[in-house]
Amino acid sequence: MERPLFFPSNGHRLFGILHRPETGRSSTAIVFLNAGPQNHTGPQRIYVEAARRFTAGGFTCLRVDLPGVGESEGPFPENNLDCHDPANVRGAVDLVLAEGAETVVLLGLCVGARVAARAALLDPRVQTVVSWSAPIISGAPDIIAEAISHAAARGQIRHWSKRLLQPSRWMRYATSHEARAEAVVKVRHVAAALLQRSPDQTVPRFVTEMGKLLGSSRGVFVAYGERDIGPRAEFEDHLGSLLHPERPDRHLLLVPGGDHTYAALAARDRVIEETLAWLSRRHPGGSTSSYTAA
Amino acid sequence: MSVEEVIRTYITREIMQGRDDRSLALDYPLIDEHVLDSMDIQRLVAFLETQFGIRITDDFLLPDNFASVRAIARMVTELGGTA
Amino acid sequence: MSDPFFFEHDGTRLFGVTAAAEAPATGTVVVLCHPYAEEKQLTDRVLVRFARHLAAAGYGTLRFDCLGYGESAGHLGDGRLDTQVSEALAAVAVARERLAAARVVLLGLRLGGTVAALAAERDSGVAGLVLWSPVLAGRTYVRELLRKKLAAQLALQDGTSTREELIEIIRREGRLEFEGGFLTAPMFDDLSAIDLSRQVTRFAGPVQVATIRQRSENYGPSEMLATAYRTAGATCDVAIAGDREYWDVKSMFDGVFPEELFAASLEWMRGHWPRAS
After folding, report:
1. Among C146, C152, C160, whose Cβ lies nearest the Cβ of B38?
2. Looking at residue A147, what is its pLDDT?
3. Distance, in angstroms, between C158 CA and closest chain B CA?
4. Among A48, A274, C263, C271, which residue's beta carbon has the most beta carbons within 10 A?
């Protein structure tokens, strides 16, 4: 059963789709968090597919639109890896607990994985995090990473200085609303990088946060596509030693043929099935049967 | 600026977003190292066509032609593009 | 305030979201038809935002997901172009009922524009059309789709099929894996056959065809469509609004909205169906 609904969270009115298994009640709920600005269906509808399979496997699922995304109100999220405030996840956890769940899992892809990890650290009611393709430091193309270095920011300014000497550039800004909007976004991000990031800072904040999560008693499932070289390498370099995959409440999955969003159907099936299998082992009371893909 | 430099600058600034401060080598394996994903390739093709006034037909969308900055530059030159 | 719901059409469970018009209402409701495949996700923010602008301007709205999209049943590739046209017509009926619409206007983006135009050919009750960069020539469009596949293949090092070989795969296997689903042979043929200027022969209501500025300043295809509509007895305005495509990944992440296009279409709507004074 799938039910669209609105619910309050941290002063916002958020949208979600609640999936209930046919058995009616499940002790474990999985909350899906937006992959950046992409709505509750996820890239290539991966969240819909995953939630339907997890529900067939006996779990309750809630796919959420955080503020500014999809059907939820609020300004459109900024173009950075931490555009979502983890405090806004609280209402989703409240909702699934009110629906009868005893165990809460937060799942996210890319930016969603970062907010899932951060939200779990803020909320002791979250027992498990599923992290698909979490960028640890650098962003995927088109996402300007929080950790853009001072050197890169200075390089951007030098690049713009040359462009601004061209009259055609000024003409474009004068005549195009979109060009002006795009320029404002870029200026804000470079300014933020120059102001916030100290040249002395050696450990990006999220590395510390993810390290805390991996050092906790929470269950953590980490997946990367085999072809998602950058994020995967950053995880292995900075956090790989903290994962302890020999622990039953930890798992690292490298998805053959998988890119950042598991676009290939075989990769998508693999990440969904392995996540479901691990969740079913970790939360056996929350699932009633194992799902077999058609 | 040479064709190679124009291409290298674009890839470094727009696709790698300056996240690697090291200079991108002309022969760095862009495809093998998964620097370019499918969206990047579409954007890069659009940039090359606009920047160099060329038309990159589907026949040219081959790994050999996008393997490195130097390979891309060679393709651009073959298609009549100049700096 | 948005009202999400499921509805049935032809045995398929579809999803929609209505928004009531803010008072004073115009009595006109806009049904929004989404693009094909992943473009729907990439432009979701555009249609959501414009629906809110419409509601604030006195127009109720209904956004719906076709079979295989969003919250609706099925997977990409389960339907054909005609399925989407039929679903658009079902959405028109739902909008009339749920929002007590005196008039329904169809708005479509990219292939959604084509769907809206084809739906209006079948339902003489559609009051107007707003077509944002509709797919006009199917052969050009399928080349664009196959080029996306070639780029994906190149990036993932998934073989080196040429465009002709991809078409051969479609013919031989009946489908090609595409953006989380399949581009099936029947859908490929449906898309290839689109020649919208020749297909609009009946709709005689007001039409706005919107296109983004072209570097080449060639607006021939949009003008041909406008001519076809005028020949059929419709009034057709061509709006040139915006500088960049807003249906790609970069636009989504940058959060750039086609505000110039929004303004142009809202002004056009107000000109035809103003608020009661």
Report:
1. C152
2. 40
3. 10
4. A48
At B10-62, the pLDDT tens digits run 888 877 765 554 578 889 888 877 778 777 888 899 889 989 989 998 888 88
Interface test with C, best of B40, B41, B56 (most C CBs within 10 A): B41
Instruction: Give C179 to chain A, closest Cα distance, Å.
Output: 6
Residue A176 near chain C (CB below 8 Å): yes
Q: What's the CATH number for C2-137+197-272?
A: 3.40.50.1820
Name subunits touching C (3+ CB pairs < 8 A).
Answer: A, B
Tell me the chain A residues in contact with residue B15 when contact means C-beta distances shorter than 8 Å: 141
Residue A193: pLDDT band by 50, 70, 90 thresholds?
low
With beta carbons less than 8 A apart as the criterion, state whether A117 and A82 touch.
Answer: no
Are residues A76 and C255, on separate chains, in Cβ contact within 8 Å? yes
Q: Taking the model in full, what pTM does it have?
A: 0.86
The rounded distance, in Å, linking the Cα atoms of C194 and C266 is 28
- Interchain CB contact of B62 with C (< 8 Å): yes
**In chain C, whose CA is at the least distance from the CA of A70?**
C45
CA distance, residue B39 to nearest chain A CA (Å): 9
Q: What tokens appear for B77 in the block?
A: 């030159």
Residue A288, pLDDT score: 46
**Nearest Cα to Cα of residue C245 among C109, C152, C124:** C109
Domain boundaries, chain C: 2-137+197-272, 138-193
Query: From CA C219, how far away is CA C231, in angstroms rounded?
Result: 18
Which residue, A136, A196, A153, A182, is CA-closest to B17? A153
CA distance C46 to C41: 10
- A38 at C interface, C-beta within 8 A: yes
Find the CB nearest A229 among B13, B33, B40: B33
pLDDT at A285 over 70: no
Query: In this model, does residue A123 exceed pLDDT 80?
Result: yes
Q: Is A71 within 8 Å of C48 when comparing Cβ atoms?
A: yes
Going along chain B from its start, the domains and CATH numbers come out as 3-78 (1.10.1200.10)
B42 touches chain C (CB under 8 A): yes
Q: What gap in Å lies between CA A260 and CA A262, rounded to an integer?
A: 6
C137 φ/ψ angles, rounded to the nearest 5 degrees = -125, 110
Number of H helices, E strands in chain B: 4, 0
Provide the residue type at B17 as one letter.
Q
CA–CA separation, C156 vs C150, rounded Å?
A: 10
CA–CA gap between residue A24 and residue A104 (Å, rounded): 17
A177: pLDDT strictly greater than 70: no
DSSP, collapsed to helix, strand or coil, labels residue A39 as coil
pLDDT in tens, C199-235: 999 999 999 999 999 877 889 899 999 999 999 999 9
Structural contact between residues A76 and A181, judged by C-beta atoms closer than 8 angstroms: no
